[in-house]
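Database export, one record per block. Field names are fixed; values are copied verbatim from the stored entry.
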Amino acid sequence: MLRTVIGLYLRDAGGWMSAKDIVALMEALGTTGTVTRTALGRLRKKDVVLQETRAGVPGFTLTDGAATMLARGDRRIYNPRSMSLEDPWCLISFSIPETEREKRHQLRRRLHWIGCGTVAAGLWICPDSLRGEVEEILMDLSLRDMATIFVTGTPMVGGSLRDAASKWWDLEAVAALHRDFIREHGSAGATIDGAPASPVRTVEPSAEAFSTYVQCIDRWRIIPYLDPGLPPAFLPEDWPGAEGSALFSRTVAAYAEPSAEFVRRTLKETAGAAIA
């Protein structure tokens, strides 16, 4: 959850936050200072954050790579994909020799983690909106000359589109993620005093609001990567994706600003305590 807190608030704090501030925020989530400092050390080793002292105060800033990754993640998290049947598709065909089998494994793993489906061992499919990310992955792995990308209309399958999609993607696993999110966070955006929730409910800045928001983002952030946002014709009739997306939007609308205000107050308090 530390990665989520840093992604949400370190940039808003001018790109730098003291170690004391980070510990205070994580304590509001029930994480001890010792655990937080250990986790910060792991993020530093993974090149997510850099240690930086300002005015004699130790703190952390994001690496350039992490800042780029978080910006891309924001676009995916807050703007879940939703295809129409008329939208184009991207097909990725590749043939990678056995001598490059480690890169082949990395390519498959990374294509999976941006929401691509597997038509065959060397043929993957995704919404064409993901083509830019596919190109970046191929270039990053130095495999661009071993792959061919096609842009096409709706695939012509032998059976139904729903049956084909269930073979290309693990839709049951994605549906389970949506249902888990709805079950765990439905109360945050479900009802107020027994009445249906309005699009934006009134929430006061508090540690509870901060915790609700951070846990919501932390739980949700993986879903928009694995959910390709397929058209309804490709999905089971009981697909929970629309409900999950709507719940996420309501929760963000209700809790984002109260959470941010709680963070501002917490950082002000820790700064005042340091001066005192």
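Remark 1: The chain has eleven helices and nine strands.
Remark 2: The longest strand covers residues 49-54.
End of record.
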